[in-house]
Design brief:
Structural class: mainly alpha
Largest sheet: 2 strands, antiparallel
Distance between the termini: 40 Å
Number of strands: 2
Number of helices: 5
Order of helices and strands: HEHHHEH
Strand order of the largest sheet: 1-2
Strand content: under 5%
Shape: globular
Length: 99
């Protein structure tokens, strides 16, 4: 059995490629593919935001080379940013509970 972090990395790669390439380049996510990935894989984040333009804003922020698609590196930046935000939230919550 692989170590947990290695499994997480493999899963991240699998998730990206399970959504990419349905509308063109198999190594990138189109806006529609990104929208579907966020809806199905990060539904709680999408539900928490009442902003109907959230995916457009995420796409704009992630698409560093402005090609209208999100490559794997840009996708990983999104996942890392969300992970840091979640960690900050939970660390703050734990600190508040300890006081």
């Amino acid at each position: 059995m692989a170590p947990l972090l290695q499994e997480c990395m493999e899963d991240l790669i699998k998730v990206f490629y399970s959504y990419s390439g349905k509308e063109g380049d198999k190594y990138k996510l189109s806006k529609a593919e990104l929208r579907l990935l966020i809806k199905e894989e990060l539904g709680d984040f999408l539900a928490a935001s009442r902003d109907p333009t959230m995916v457009d804003k995420i796409m704009c922020d992630l698409d560093e080379n402005k090609d209208g698609q999100v490559d794997f590196q840009e996708f990983v930046i999104m996942v890392a940013t969300l992970t840091v935000a979640c960690n900050d939230f939970f660390v703050g919550l734990v600190k508040d509970c300890q006081q």
